[in-house]
Amino acid sequence: MPDALAERPSALQLFLIFARIGLTSFGGGLSGWMLREFVQRRRLMSEEDFLNGLSIAQALPGVNVTNMAIWIGYRLGGRGGAIACWLGIVVPAAIVIVLLGTAFAWLGNYAVTHVALGGAASAAIGLSLAMGLTAARRVPRRVFPLAIMAATFFAVAILKWPLLWTVLGAGSLSVAVTYYRG
Fold first, then answer.
1. How many beta carbons lie within 10 A of that of residue 13, not counting itself?
2. According to its record, what are the GO cellular component terms (predicted)?
């Protein structure tokens, strides 16, 4: 739930926030930017609320970041907020991608281009790791949730099992056990 003290942003403000996030995040790590912006900086939702939304966004088909933008927009501004956030995360970045694609056709022959892209990828991996650690800290310190987290990591990262089936299986098991335990 948003803080009682935090003023809800308008649809235009939501659009501009997501346009900035989308235009200043390279190679991933956008969920980390969203966490900082909506939980830590603006205090528009709790960390628990944010991580619940992230879980939903990751479980749904489609691009996680887009799903998360729509979820945050809906939480903070209803349908109009959801549309504004979706437009903000997609449209400005799509315009830049088209422009960069055109420029890369020309700049791709220079080694410095590949070095710059490698640096941006490294930074994005760091942001993703920070987000993963934040989410891991929120896992209840009980044996079963930690076992599910470890088993999911092992199945996907080590055994290379399909992400969809692993998450569906682990998620279903986790929900069932939590439900029956009360």
1. 17
2. plasma membrane
